[in-house]
Design brief:
The complex is a heterodimer of chains A (357) and B (235). Chain A has 357 residues and is of the alpha/beta class. In chain A, 48% of the residues lie in helices and 15% in strands. Chain A folds into two domains: 34-173 and 245-356, 3-Layer(aba) Sandwich (Rossmann fold), CATH 3.40.50.1820; 176-242. Chain A has helices spanning 2-21, 73-77, 79-88, 113-131, 145-153, 174-194, 199-211, 219-235, 237-242, 251-256, 262-267, 273-283, 310-319, 337-340, 342-356, and strands spanning 34-42, 45-53, 59-64, 90-94, 103-104, 136-142, 164-168, 297-302, 325-330. In chain A, a hairpin with a 2-residue loop joins strand 1 (34-42) and strand 2 (45-53). Chain B has 235 residues and is mainly β. Chain B has a single domain, classed as Porin, CATH 2.40.160.20. In chain B, the strands form two sheets. An eight-stranded antiparallel barrel of chain B has the order 3-4-5-6-7-11-12-13. Residues 1-31 of chain B have low confidence and may be disordered. Classes of the chains: A alpha/beta (357), B mainly beta (235). At the A-B interface, helix 1, strand 1, strand 2, strand 5 and helix 4 of A face helix 1, strand 4, strand 5, strand 6 and strand 7 of B.
Amino acid sequence: MAIHKLVRLVGLAAGLLVVLGSCQREDISVATRADDAFYVRSNGADMPVRVKGNTASQTFMLMIHGGPGGNGAFFELNRDAVRPLEEKMAVVYWDQRFAGSSQGNPSRATVTAAQYGEDVRKVLLVLKARYGADSKLFILGESWGGFVAPAFMTAGNNQALVKGWIHLVGGHNFRLQDSLTREMIREYAGVEIAKGKKVGQWEELVRKANAVNFQQYNLDVSKTMSLLGEDATELTEEYQNKVTVDGIVNVPSFFRRNDFSSIANLLSYVNPSRDDANTVAVRNEYSSKLHLVTVPVLIMNGKYDFLVPPKLGEDALRNLGSVHKKLLIFDKSSHDLIAQEPRRFHQEVQAFVEEFK
Amino acid sequence: MMGILNHKACVLAASCLVAPPFSARAQVTRPDTTQATQAPQTVQLPLSVQFSLVGAVFYPGVRAGVAYPLLTKEITKVRKAGQRRILLKDHALAANLGWYHHGGYHDNVFLTVGYDMRRTRPSGFFLNLEPQLGLSRTFLGGTTYEVAANDEVRRVSAAGSFYFAPGLSFGLGKDLSKTRPGLLLSVYGKGTLLFLLPYNNFLYFRPMLEVGVSYRLNRFRQVRVRSVKKTTSRS
């Protein structure tokens, strides 16, 4: 009898703790230094969203992270780049499905460009529901996020939800991007070899790049080109002399954050769904659909970015249907532009938002 | 900092996984050793209830449950000098209900059933290893919204997910009754690696540290378990 009472007592205590602990508060802050967090459920995924900064401005910048398998906290690592933005607008850090601290167990069949685009739409609708239908929304897609962003922008009437799109070292066309990487390797190899710099290494790199078979373009080809691009970045002397990590990369605060899970963030880098997402990007392209985009677009590329070469930014500029479109080449940056030229980055973003909000 | 802790937890978990169970090690018979095993008997052993405070990395929680004894072995080792050393090996089925609170991320309620293998020295110091199977239900740490087909945004109540939750615990502690008869308490510390799966079509794991007490219900409930006594001596 006593054991039954004890078990009942333990059960009751546990139940009470659960109820107390899991009460879901709805924090909607209209303030100049807001810090709200909530989740958006979409087709099996529970995706965390964190809104930081000036929600009173009613201007929101949704950051669409790279990867695939990255996380919204990546942007926060670069405090010099994002903190000034948070003073002028609310910056929205969102973890995509299968990535970062997203939870649930969505089917792998949901790894489609359309689903990623739909997830963006749902996050934007929730922002409007929370902060007001007249909120001014912008999106910024970085790297892989530059594939997700056009998936959203070119579907239906989605772009009516936003005032503008920032295409930051965005990979809207992986096949073209990888072929441009090869072209850029050849170009820089010519220059460096002519100078007599690391001749053997450059020749080897060109030999490897030429051996890649683009006739059978697939995920392996794309991965190979990414690795060769990284090697080329390391070899480029001009790049090494010019580029420094200018921002404050605040790694300790990233690990101290207790709102989302660092373990989940790390595990998402080895989630098998990453390859599924990359395969989707390899099999789809948005160059041919960018003419559907008519909202203002700001394109940013790094001069020394061998992963997403600046010529891919030119492709976006050429194909976009927008009247207001601009390409900026950051001449002290590679792929990690946000960390390498944070001041110029936030100045250009602020100017764009001010002009079109 | 957290990364370092996670790394330590991984190393601990890995070492637990590769280490042979205590009972397996105990079966080894050296060539110069003789063994005498008495026929199994049945003895009465009490159930235990246990309660512990959980630290899931930096996040607080509690865990409580019952251990149901299954088997006890008393191994007497006789050394060359005639010294006798008695080791107790106990196997029990442990059922635990746990909860931790990771603010902003999730609350996790998990029910586990584990096979507890414990080795106790005469001083009362013990080590235990407990593989577990379980079920977890998470509750998201923030307001959760979903968008209906007509684009209406709605709040989801008690949003979260069920996961299969296997785990592995490695612990040490002291049975206080060995040195103070009548005090039916044990104190223990435990490291647990709890997995949640399938999680994002993959897995999630959570290292946890526990400190707790266990109380033997001598007066309330006793169960019959098989008892084996074995004597090993160097010849």
